[in-house]
């Protein structure tokens, strides 16, 4: 959770109003040890990220879709400077 995203309840409500059956939703999350304002992920989240991505990819594949883990992330365009970064 952050100041920039809705809570789980609001997210599930939005899914329902978009005709997404909640039985199709699989919440996957990681709990950090502290929640400070910033842009970097904490150490707990960074350590868990690879496992979370594996869980998501497995879930997607079980539903008959293609999902492959990347060895390198795609470049991200920094909205503040319009520069790409990895």
Number of domains: 1
Number of β-strand runs: 2
Count every helix, treating DSSP H or I runs of 4 or more residues as helices: 2
Distance between the termini: 23 Å
* Share in helix: 25-40%
* Topology order in helix (H) and strand (E) letters: HHEE
Strand order of the largest sheet: 1-2
Radius of gyration: 16 Å
Instruction: State mean pLDDT (0 to 100 scale).
Output: 81
Low-confidence stretches: none
Largest sheet, strands/sense/barrel? 2 strands, antiparallel
**Fraction of residues in β-strands:** under 5%
Shape: globular
Which structural class do the helices and strands define? Answer: mainly alpha
Assembly category: single chain
Helix and strand arrangement:
Layout lengths: L7 H10 L25 H20 L13 E2 L6 E2 L1
Antiparallel strand pairs: 1-2
Put the structure in a nutshell:
With 86 residues, the protein is mostly helical. It is 35% helix and 5% strand. The protein starts with 7 loop residues before the first helix and ends with a strand.
Descriptive report:
By secondary structure, the protein is mostly helical. It has one domain (8-85). The protein has two helices and two strands, in the order H-H-E-E. It has helices spanning 8-17, 43-62, and strands spanning 76-77, 84-85. The mean pLDDT is 81.
């Amino acid at each position: 959770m952050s100041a920039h995203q809705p809570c789980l309840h609001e997210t599930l409500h939005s899914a329902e109003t978009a005709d997404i059956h909640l039985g199709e939703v699989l919440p996957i999350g990681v709990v950090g040890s502290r929640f400070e304002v910033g842009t970097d992920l904490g150490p707990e989240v960074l350590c868990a990220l690879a496992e979370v991505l594996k869980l998501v990819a497995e879930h997607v594949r079980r539903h008959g879709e293609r999902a492959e883990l990347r060895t390198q992330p795609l470049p991200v365009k920094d909205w503040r400077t319009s520069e790409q970064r990895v």
